[in-house]
Structure formats: C-alpha cells, structure tokens
Amino acid sequence: MPHASVAASASVGFSCRELRTHAEFIEASALYSRVFAYSENEFALNANLLTSLARNGGSAVGAYSSEGDLIGFAYGFAGSDGHGATYHFSQAAAVDPDHQGRGVGKALKLAQRDVALGWGQRTMRWTFDPILSRNAHFNLSSLGAVGIAFVPDYYARPGTDRLVVAWDLTDTSATAATDAAIESPPPVERADWGRSLPAADGGSWIVTSARPDDLSAAERTTLASKLGQTLTEVFLRGEVLISASRIDETTAVYRAVPGEGAA
Q1: From the centroid of its chain, how far is CA 239?
Q2: Is the model's pLDDT at 29 over the cut of 90?
Q3: Cα 31 to Cα 127: distance, rounded to the nearest angstrom
Q4: Which of its termini does the chain have fewer beta carbons within 10 Å around, N or C?
Q5: Cα dihedral 227/230/236/238 (nearest 10)
Q6: How many CB atoms lie within 10 A of CB 138?
Q7: What values do phi and psi take at 259, rounded to 5?
Q8: Closest C-alpha to 92, from 76, 80, 111
Q9: Alpha-carbon distance 94 to 172, whole Å?
C-alpha cells in the first residue's frame, strides 16, 4: 500500500500518519463512535474493514498529539460514479472535541490526499449536510473543493440530504476561493434563507443560516427542504459551488458559478 508522508507541526502539537496496526484501527473505530456519539452497532466501524480499505485503494489516517494520543481520524476508499469518473471517496473525518479548531481536520484531509495520490487517484470526493454552513466554508473556501451535486436522502433514510464536493488533488496552488476574490453578495436577510439570488457577474448566491444549531427542529427541517430544492435547481442549471461565507451573525451564502460538471 502507498505510504503518506508524515504531516507534522510542532507549533500546533500534532502530526498525521497512516494507520497500520490492528490496535490503531481499533482505537480509530472507538474515536469515530465517540466523536459522533454513535451507540448502535449499525454505525460502528469494523477494524478489519478499515484494514482492507487501507490495503486496497483506500485510506485510514490518524492525527496524533505530541503525547502520542489519537486525536483525529479519517478514512476513505476508491470510488467511481458509474460514468467513467474515478476518485478517492473520503467517507468521514472525526476530531476529538478537545482538539477541534486547531487545524486537525485540514491536516487529516491533506494526509488523505497524500495517500490517494499514492494510489494514483487524482480527485477526492466527499459529502456533507448543506445546511452546515461552517462545514461548507471549510470544504469550499478553505480547502478549495467544488460543490458538484445535491443528493436527497444520501444514506437511504430521511434527514440525510448531502452535498457532493470534488477536490482536485493535483492542484497544489492556492486555489481556494477567498472573500476578496468574489463579488460581494446582494443585501440578504432571514426571509431569503433557502433562496437563490442572481449574481451580477453570472451564477448565483444561495442564502442559508449561519447558525443552524440555533434553529428549532421545525425551522431546520423547513430550511433543509428549501435549500435542497434550490441546490437541485442550481445544479440543473449547470452551476457549481465554489465558496461559502458568513454575511453576519445569522446569515451565510454559497457562491455558485457556471461550471463544466464534476471533476
């Protein structure tokens, strides 16, 4: 199997590397369940499965503190969309709550990139809940991935709508969209949440909540439905998402531009 280069930073006190032993896979599975508060077996990770993924075109990488504790974990596998596109699919990343906000998530993604490139994979894809604007900012504006599709009920059950993103692993330049490089959005307010507004230079803005965790269950469900409908229309128009940013304490926006489809 390919070996990822060790991504380390003394200034932040952690490093990332591939997992290789049974004990490491067991520890990663436990961290995954703990971070996502999974108690049911149907959501558990099997250590043998992780081992097989890591040996056959997939990835299993961990972030370790300077004391040697596992504080983050990510895994993925080789994928295909059935239309000729192949890629590395990053299924999940989990970071211990005590170490979040320190760049561990980004370091794990970069370690996964090294593994994927070692397998000859040039693109990575993953999914996230589009209502989570903070995740959207990280995936699109920070990493430089591009939103390419919206899939309702991705995990074949209600409440699992997902946005699919693609990340070009061969582009090592600073390609992530920055607020300064993008036209400013029009004035928006809460009444615009879930709507698509035209952009002056082409494409559109998709308006959403900047703090979805503050919404009631009913409000969140309503917003998710509106956002899903709008994203479906945006992708049908041939647009892709290149950034996500907060406008104020309550409102955030996606930026969509005309695109050429999936990477």
Answers
A1: 19
A2: yes
A3: 20
A4: N
A5: -90
A6: 18
A7: -135, 175
A8: 76
A9: 24
